[in-house]
Amino acid sequence: MHIYTAHVHWSRGDQDFLDNRYSRRHLIEFDGGAVLPGSSSPHVVRVPLSDPAAVDPEEGFVASLSSCHMLWFLSLAAGRGFRVDHYSDRAEGVMAKNARGKLFVSTVTLRPQVSFSGERLPSSEEFQALHHEAHEECFIANSVLTEVRCEPVLQPAR
Description:
Blueprint: E1 6-9, E2 26-30, E3 35-38, H1 57-79, E4 83-89, E5 92-97, E6 103-110, E7 112-117, H2 124-137, E8 147-150, E9 153-154
Parallel strand pairs: 6-8, 7-9
Antiparallel strand pairs: 1-2, 2-3, 4-7, 5-6
Helix pairs in contact: 1-2
């Protein structure tokens, strides 16, 4: 068993708080030492109470799915002898209401664009299979009930 940690820290400072007009900006410290500014989404809490430059939980969720998928894809591609030169994903999450009327991230769509080089290039079928297997292996995708879609784009060889 492995334990992964994140320390989320917020402080009121000199804000009144009880008037509900407090900053949602906070820090997220990860176990490896990285520190990320966090905030509520400006779609949920208006600016200036939210910080649009910080990462909100919804963005973090989408990024987590995208990053996990990419890491599995790279590992699988390397294991099959395909040299990946570039991987880029403009992942997108959609917020909707569930059957109980609660907001949730209903769909995450991954749109990885991948380019390869070298003597061994994947066929379209192999490329799609790599993405399918990466999705099946992704720890984060296996941890959520959200539908996770993957719409990969094969970039031409360089």
